[in-house]
From TrEMBL:
GO molecular function, one term: phosphoric diester hydrolase activity
Membrane-spanning intervals of the chain: none
GP-PDE domain ranges (all copies): 33-320
PANTHER family: GLYCEROPHOSPHORYL DIESTER PHOSPHODIESTERASE (PTHR43805), GP-PDE DOMAIN-CONTAINING PROTEIN (PTHR43805:SF1)
One GO biological process term: lipid metabolic process
Domain of life: Bacteria
Protein name from the UniProt record: Glycerophosphodiester phosphodiesterase
Length: 327
């Protein structure tokens, strides 16, 4: 009897191993990581004590390049560095535009005050978006006066970078914002091929994704997807929450995922879902950490079939090309 139990257990373990092994799902050699550049080429900042109310412009690292996030120049530089997709942040304005700017309010990065979405684009175009950046606690402001008038509209981004693909982040707002963007996409059909997907605030993200038939990811759906997959993924079952969406996976959560990396990404791809690998998530950190160092990039699986999120595209893009050539 004991022998039969051992044989049965071995067969079950063997079946689980075969069903969740990545050996037969590994992409072809020479596959470069597909990189998502967070805000384009941007100024980085330290994350110690970070909250969702922290003004990150006041804590930047010593600058190593002249670019400001969410500008056309920074997006162009990101694509040239190897980005497959550039993530951008948008807000509707009272005069009928979409402002591409990170913050809900203007006081952190610019010389102005007020709510971004309540400010006409004609006014936003006059602002210095590099005004508030400092790396030394306010002793110097290295970007003041250098980025006046560089806040773009979404239409300007699309016109300036006709080959680029973009992940749209809704910074908040009602579901009607998503429908408003969907109408803009309908009026500009070429945008549908340029928008890789949506994420962020649940209301507008779901509305835009549904109306344009493009993928959208929200934090509640991503959490439900991963928790359900951890519970049932051993069987190959794909939870409904994991279908036709975008799933962000912190690097330190990957050991929990059945079939990681290649079987997992293949299953998600079959379900119409894109996998985006983040840096390790630290408890209490409200943001999205990236693959931002050579060490972190070295931990990305060989021939990874998903996307890799980075805040340092100017460095990671070069390193990832070197890795691909070595293969």
């Amino acid at each position: 009897m004991a022998r039969k139990l051992l044989i049965g257990a071995a067969l079950i373990i063997g079946a689980l191993w075969l069903n969740n092994n990545s050996l037969f799902s590994r992409p072809a050699a020479g596959t470069e990581p597909k990189l998502i550049a967070h805000r384009g080429v941007a100024q980085t900042y330290h994350r110690e004590g970070l909250t969702d109310k922290t003004c990150t412009a006041e804590r930047i690292d010593p600058p190593t390049h002249p670019y400001q996030e969410n500008t056309i120049a920074s997006m162009q530089a990101a694509f040239e560095a190897g980005a497959a997709v550039v993530e951008i942040d948008i807000h509707p304005t009272p005069d009928g535009h979409w402002a591409v700017f990170h913050d809900w309010t203007l006081d952190c990065r610019t010389e102005a005050n007020g709510v971004t979405r309540q400010t006409p684009m004609s006014v936003l175009k006059t602002l210095d978006i590099g005004y508030g950046y400092t790396a030394d606690g306010g002793q110097t402001y290295p970007f003041r006066g250098k980025h006046v008038g560089e806040m773009p509209t979404l239409a300007e981004v699309m016109d300036a970078l006709p080959e680029g693909r973009f992940l749209i982040n809704f910074k908040g707002g009602p579901a009607d914002d998503g429908l408003l963007l969907a109408r803009a996409v309908a009026q500009n059909p070429a945008w549908a091929d340029r928008i890789w997907g949506y994420y962020g605030a649940a209301g507008p993200t779901i509305a835009a994704a549904t109306a344009t038939d493009l993928p959208g990811g929200t934090k509640p759906v991503m959490k439900e997807c991963l928790l359900r997959y951890i519970a049932t993924g051993w069987s190959g079952h794909m939870p409904e929450a994991c279908r036709d969406t975008i799933v962000f996976v912190p690097q330190n959560y990957t050991p929990l995922l059945w079939g990681w990396p290649h079987k997992f990404t293949a299953r998600m791809e079959k379900a119409g879902t894109a996998v985006v690998l983040l840096g390790a998530h630290e408890k209490g950190d409200p943001g999205t950490t990236g693959i931002d160092s050579a060490e972190q990039l070295g931990d990305v699986p060989d021939r990874f079939g998903g996307y890799v999120w980075t805040n340092r595209i100017e460095m990671i893009g070069l390193l990832s090309r070197d890795v691909s050539r070595e293969e």
